[in-house]
Amino acid sequence: MNIEFNNQDSRLGYLNDKLDDLLDGINASYGQILFDELVIRLERTISDFNEEISLLTEEVKDNSDRRAEILHTLMEGQDQSPTVAQEEIAESGGIDSEVLSEWEKRLEGLS
Description:
This protein has two domains: 1-78; 80-111, no CATH class. It is built from four helices and no strands. It has helices at 8-23, 28-76, 82-91, 97-110. Helix 1 packs across helix 2.
């Protein structure tokens, strides 16, 4: 059996054939209902997975762009103010804002 996984119809046909093979032993009255429910759940799972992957890739791209911009700025020798750098770190999720505030208070207390 030759399957083209790049083609959606071919993948769906393959899954249908495999599920039909699995459902042969189930009572005829429940077979189609069970099969339809399985297909619906598989489609929902695939849709959720694709959505999560899309969000993750967007987040990774945004973080990469932000890091590239910071690196470019540093390589040009432009001096960023400490507050801008701290805001970028806090936005990227590297340091929690509460932790940052506690450290700022400790540093001010040392001065």
